[in-house]
Specification:
By secondary structure, the protein is α+β, with helices and mostly antiparallel strands. The chain contains eight helices and twelve strands. Helix 4 packs antiparallel against helix 5, helix 5 packs antiparallel against helix 7 and helix 7 runs antiparallel to helix 8. The radius of gyration is 25 Å and the shape is globular. The protein starts with a helix and ends with a strand.
């Protein structure tokens, strides 16, 4: 009987292993193919989303633009250097990890020390809230805003700010682009708000999840980017903000103006460290759970490090949920609807 059971296990294992490896290959290849499809698609058309494996509007323009950059050689040098250094460090880390696993108690202490170092790094090297940032000033829209009230009156307001608006009422703010305007993006962060951008009375960008969300009464907070061009110089821009929560009703966040990549670069510089730490903790939590589970099977006993891994994993999920960069990981973009210019 034992021989038959062993024989069955030997026959089942290759099938299960093959299925798992095929799924792993698909999961690994899809992001690469998706990135390739987007890179071969028209940049403006890519904002609509919905590109998976094949480009919708094929173009070589993105590659031509990159190849014309003066700092391309520097970027290639940095990539090669990071690859070499990363390989050496990975080999050293694997050797240290092998030693740690052989002494199971050390893994707990090292994870605790790394978590503490991450928190300390966030506090000491994170964004300094007291000092101004030149990059931020260059990206903030410098125009004036007027609040168009529902009773027909208007009031000049400062942005960012919060004003007396009832929940479920739409706050409308107006601004006129300067005559020398030449930027390609206006952006604002939604604080649990639905956002609509109108340029010269025409709807240009809308963010609203009311027709698609499964739970909740508001659209998730995210950065909403409205495409513009030099043809919009001198035109009026109207931004409508709507929420069902009184706490965020009347909230107007900073309006950014410039290149979308530059805005994302500034946002990552400001909030990226928290996101990187959250991803590190997520990875550390998963590895700890796997090690705890595997060692439990190998030694036929229960290891407390598995519980530590679950705690770290849940903390990482919470940090990612609170991250202002989370829309890069979750499909919020599908709710952004862009009207044709």
């Amino acid at each position: 009987m034992a021989a038959k059971k062993a024989k069955k296990k030997v026959q089942i294992f290759p099938i299960v292993n093959t299925i798992i490896m095929i799924l792993f290959v698909i999961i690994t290849l899809y992001p690469v193919l998706n990135t390739l499809a987007i890179s071969l698609n028209d940049g403006t058309d890519s904002l609509r989303g919905g590109i998976y494996l094949l480009p919708r509007k094929f173009t070589w323009k993105n590659y031509i633009t990159v190849l014309q950059k003066d700092n391309l050689i520097t970027g290639a040098y940095v990539t090669v250097a990071r690859t070499v250094i990363g390989t050496v460090l990975a080999l050293a880390a694997n050797a240290i990890l092998a030693f740690v696993v052989s002494r199971k108690r050390f893994l707990f202490y090292i994870l605790m020390i790394l978590s503490l170092l991450c928190i300390m790094a966030l506090q000491f090297f994170g964004q300094n809230e007291r000092d101004g940032n030149t990059t931020e000033k260059n990206l903030i829209y410098q125009g004036t805003f007027t609040w168009q009230k529902s009773d027909g009156s208007s009031e000049k307001i400062s942005v960012p700010g919060q004003y007396d608006v009832k929940a479920k009422d739409t706050m409308t703010i107006l601004t006129r682009l300067p005559e020398d305007y030449h930027e390609n993006t206006l952006a604002i962060r939604s604080s649990l708000q639905s956002v609509r951008f109108y340029v010269d009375g025409e709807l240009r960008m809308e963010y609203d999840t009311s027709g698609t969300r499964l739970v909740g009464k508001n659209s998730a907070s995210c950065y909403v980017f409205c495409p513009t061009s030099e043809d919009d110089a001198g035109k009026e821009v109207r931004i409508e903000l709507t929420t069902n929560t009184a706490k965020y009703s009347g909230v107007v966040n900073t309006v950014y103006c410039g290149d979308e990549a530059a805005i994302w670069g500034y946002l990552f510089q400001t909030y990226g460290l928290e996101t990187v730490i959250a991803l590190f903790l997520l990875f550390a939590g998963i590895i700890t759970i796997i090690f705890g589970f595997s060692l439990g099977i190998a030694y036929q006993t229960k290891f407390d490090m598995e519980y530590l891994g679950w705690c770290v994993f849940m903390a990482a999920i919470w940090m990612l949920g609170e991250s202002k960069m989370r829309q890069l990981f979750f499909r919020i973009r599908q709710h952004l609807q862009r009207c044709v210019l």
